[in-house]
Amino acid sequence: MVLTGTTALLCATALATAFTAPAAAHTATLTAVEAAVTSGVPGVTVTVRDSRGTWSATAGTGDLRTGEARSPDDRYRIGSLTKTFVATVMLQLEAEGRLSLDDTVDTWLPGLVDGHGNDGRRITLRQLLGQTSGIPSYTADRDFRARYFTEDGFREHRYDTLTPRELVAIAMRHAPDFAPGSSWRYSNTNYVIAGMVIEKATGHSYATEITRRVIGPLRLTATSVPGTAVTVPGPASRAYSTFGGAAGAPYDVTELDPSLAAASGAMISDSADLDRFYAALLGGRLLPARQLREMETTVAVEGAPDVRYGLGLMDRRLSCGVHVWTHTGDIQGSTSVAATTADGRHTLALNFNGDWAGATKPVLEAEYCGDQPRDWTVPSALVPREPPQEA
């Protein structure tokens, strides 16, 4: 939404008050954030942590009805950034000897992955985390998309509660995308299953384990695994979708039952917490060195030559040659990205409160490559963008 009138004034106020570290070093980042709003994103919030301190900025609108601006403290649905949390817990369990990434899915969940050529006896936990299992994504199912990714379907089904087994069963209606380990393709089903394995291995839900192992120790006070709670705790902006079309009127999709995403993308956080999490992860505070190396062992991503996928983490090569470890996150009305350098000392997290416009890549290019001339309006994403809930 182009800034005009009251919204422009609110945005200017937010930009003037959000800086908590010298802003000059982030001029290009601010330009990219403002360009996202000009391209149609309702509002953006971003926070950066580096050796100079913390810098935050907002642009655009958090509530299209009231004109209220976005806030650096906004909590939002983080979509597939959840996957990095899930992979972290799984790797912690491996380090503790409670499971092996070379275990098959069937070892932990007999008969779950079965039918139409899917076979959990041939798929390892490592392949789940690395998106090389060949298990189809339940979010690509035509009936599922009609229920949750169209306006009429969403109106009727936004408060549906779905179990992980129901989500996996949807995927099992379809043949595998490829033989296990022979290729790469993003599938949300992989991480729904990973969450189920965590529960089987520990006796606790994946939500409990993430809270106990990550959220609590890092004091991520804005981060939660909401279960079936349909609201986003405040402070928070509204979230909007046009259900796949840039021309449609934005529809408020803030309230929904996140069980439709489960361990593939249900979590809520804010930019400061995400910075802290990714800094701790890459800084070696959450995983032993061996498990962090496993997480950082990557495979090529077809169609994205500058991206390689590890275990719940992407290695992104930027145009200036800098590599960042990152993940994107999309769910209805929300597009997010978090990134950090290899040592965890320079982190960025941002959120768009709309799912039909803008791109996160130019913001990363701006922050990590500096003020080099470039076209901030190029609609490029970190990986080929999936419909909400990607991740």
Residue share in helices? 25-40%
Shape: globular
User: SSE order, as H and E?
Assistant: HHEEEHHEEHHHHHHEEEHHEEEEEEH
Determine the mean pLDDT.
90
- Largest sheet: spatial strand order: 2-1-14-13-12-11-10-9
User: Which consecutive residue ranges, at least 5 long each, have pLDDT under 50?
Assistant: 1-20, 372-391
SS field, number of helical segments = 13
Give the tally of β-strands: 14
Radius of gyration: 20 Å
User: Structural class, judged by helices and strands?
Assistant: alpha+beta
> How many strands, what sense, and barrel or not for the largest sheet?
8 strands, antiparallel
How many angstroms does the end-to-end distance come to? 23 Å
Strand content: 15-25%
Q: Could you characterize the architecture of this molecule?
A:
The chain is of the alpha+beta class and 391 residues long. 32% of the residues lie in helices and 16% in strands. The chain is built from 13 helices and 14 strands. The strands form four sheets. It has an eight-stranded antiparallel sheet, sandwiched between helices. A two-stranded antiparallel ribbon has the order 3-8. Strands 4-5 form a two-stranded antiparallel sheet. A hairpin with a 5-residue loop joins strand 11 and strand 12 (323-331). Helix 2 (27-38) runs antiparallel to helix 13 and helix 8 (164-171) packs across helix 9. The longest helix has 15 residues, at 188-202.
